[in-house]
Amino acid sequence: MKKEYLVKLPLALHLTTNKKSFFLNEKFEAIAVNNVEKLLDYHINNIDIINLTPEFKDSTDYKIGDAIQEEDPEAYKDFFHYVLHNELPSAEQIENKNIKYENIAGVNDNILKNLAIYLFKSGLTEKDIELQLKAHYEEKGWPFAQLKGWFKKVVNRDITEINKGELIEWCLMYKKELLAKIPEISGLDEISKLEREIIRLTEDKLRRQLSKFLKRIIDLRNEVFERYFFGLLAVKTKISKIEIERITNNLIALEDSKPPVAFSELMNKELSPIEYIIYPIIPKNKLILIGGKPGKFKSMFALALSLSMQKDYMFLDVFKSLESPKILYYDLENDEITTLWRAKYLKNGLKISDDKLKNIHLVNKFDKNNINKEIELAKNYDVIILDSYRRFLKGEENTSEVTDKFFSSFLKPLKDKYKKTLIIIHHFKKGNLEEFDDDMVIDIFRGSSDIPAQFDLIYGIIKHEDDDEKEDNLNFDISVMKVKNRLGLPIKNFVFNVNKNDATQSTEIRFKKTFKFSSPKDNHKQKIIDFIALKTNPTRDEIFENCKNKYNLSLRTVARYLKELLEENKIIQPEYSKYSLQL
To answer: For the whole model, what pTM was predicted?
Structure first.
């Protein structure tokens, strides 16, 4: 039977008796002050709502068309219809007594927040909810202010997207049957079965079968369910969550490893030749990283590549596209309008007809809380492009655990299991690519050092600014440098020219040349050679003084460069501590 509460008002100090007022329960017992907030949240959140019929009117109020359009509110209609027409559970009604939750006072707070987002996305304005909901709230005795407060946050863009992860977590705690009403959650039968098995088994049996259950949890590929089951296992087995996570990570590492194989067996294995989408710069079934500074043509380069993936098309008139793959382009860095304008300019510049672009599909959202759903989408395509890397991470890019998890849960399965080609755009740190030596150039990428280690092929993009740019016509060169070439592909660094013309709404790109990258080390060694050629048998001290004054090089660095030049037979030592060119 549902509990009813009586409230004696006013909640204040009586002027005559000098006694305080209290909230009372059904037994007329005073409720402790620290539980009042819980009680208020119960009344605020447990609401029977009238049916909403949003009307679109001419209004100065902020509306959905002005802002958030990524998430289709219709997909959540069944879920929020239930929420609006059924009483929500209170802290006392938690179904799973095995799990203890802190901060239980706001049990329905996330539901209320996401409800506000849903109402806004459904087209309602602040004026609409005042007219359609306020009277009903007051009739039921529920405060309208909390919903209105969340709605204002949505209008101000403090919160923007319905958080599916929050809805899933709420359902797991309070109302599991509602999971079926949350859109695009796969594997609910397996989730229910898994939960029943864990709850049914004893502590001893669960401990013995822990690895088996953890493997099933890993296969769900959903971080929200993963956290829930880790918590459930921790309670049932009395093993800490930290230890369960450690065991899980070890299992993932074990599955990724293979037993040793003798080279004699490997030599008899038939190796498939490397296949290409665009020869030789885009190989099939590989992980490819494109890096550069913000705003320096990385996204445009990736977009130009995707538009050029048409069988027999010659990208930059040099690189031949060998097939027309189906492409999924995730763009979380730019809004849809920006991407479409860029694509239009490039299409015109590349002279590609509209009917050739049916193989490219654009997406502007990525569900970090349901990686399995994203894999289900991406596995239907041949090439997946991600712009930009950090937007897809659930956590900081500097944390190796975060980047490794994204690699093992999303990138690796698509590459290894489904044989997809993935192109990912990433940012450089501060500094210029030209300033890094060959053995240090990999360190220019932002985030964990594990990131570049995961890729087969890495390109660095360098934009050379044009000082003579006109208002409606931009002209500049782009250098593309291979930073990592694990496969030993026949790729040379190359330069192409970009001409963006607003009058013709086109961006033309033309190949210019190949080039050999000269690192700072190479440049400094050449300066030493030039100095030796200018002088007659200069001493080591003279060379050091010149390099220190002009290039701020240390004695140790100069000594190392001199030793390398001697080993390369570019200079000789006619006598002790003196140097001349090798004739």
So the answer is: 0.52
The predicted pLDDT at position 431 comes to 57
pLDDT tens readout for residues 327-342: 999 999 988 899 999 9
| C-alpha–C-alpha distance, residues 369 and 223, integer Å | 6
3-class DSSP assignment, residue 292 = strand
Given this model, what pLDDT does residue 24 score? 59
Q: Are 343 and 450 in a shared domain?
A: yes
Residues 537/574, Cβ–Cβ less than 8 Å: yes
Distances, alpha carbon 409 to alpha carbons 159, 311, 399, 482, in Å: 27, 31, 16, 27
Residue 264 counted as domain residue = no
Report the share of the chain in percent with pLDDT over 90. Answer: 31
Predicted confidence (pLDDT) at residue 101 exceeds the cutoff of 60 = no
Residues 240 and 113 in one domain: no
Decide if 456 contacts 491 (C-beta within 8 A): no
DSSP 308-375: T-STT-EETTTEEE-----EEEEESSS-HHHHHHHHHHHHHHHT--GGGGTTEEEE----TT-HHHHH
d(C-alpha 223, C-alpha 323), whole Å: 36
Q: What are phi and psi of 145, to 5 degrees?
A: -60, -35
What proportion of the chain, given as a percentage, has pLDDT over 70?
A: 78
Are 235 and 312 contained in the same domain? no
Our CA angle for 94, 99, 103, nearest 5°, is: 70
CB 164 within 8 A of CB 222: no
Residue recorded with tokens 């800490």: 240
Please check whether residues 52 and 122 belong to one and the same domain.
yes
Residue 507 lies in a domain: yes
Number of domains in the chain: 5
Model pLDDT, residue 268: 80
Whether residues 422 and 547 share a domain: the answer is no
Rank 115-119, 183-187, 361-365, 482-486 by mean pLDDT and report only the highest.
361-365
Q: Does any domain span residue 64?
A: yes
Residue 517, both tokens:
């990258």
- Pair (289, 397) in one structural domain: yes
Q: Taking a C-beta distance cutoff of 8 angstroms, is the pair 522, 541 a contact?
A: no
My answer on whether 312 and 387 are in the same domain is yes
Q: pLDDT at position 272, please? A: 77
For residue 225, what pLDDT is reported? 83
The Cβ-side half-sphere exposure at 264, using a 13 Å CA radius, reads 0
Q: Domain limits at 555?
A: 520-581
pLDDT classification of 289: cutoffs 50, 70, 90: very high
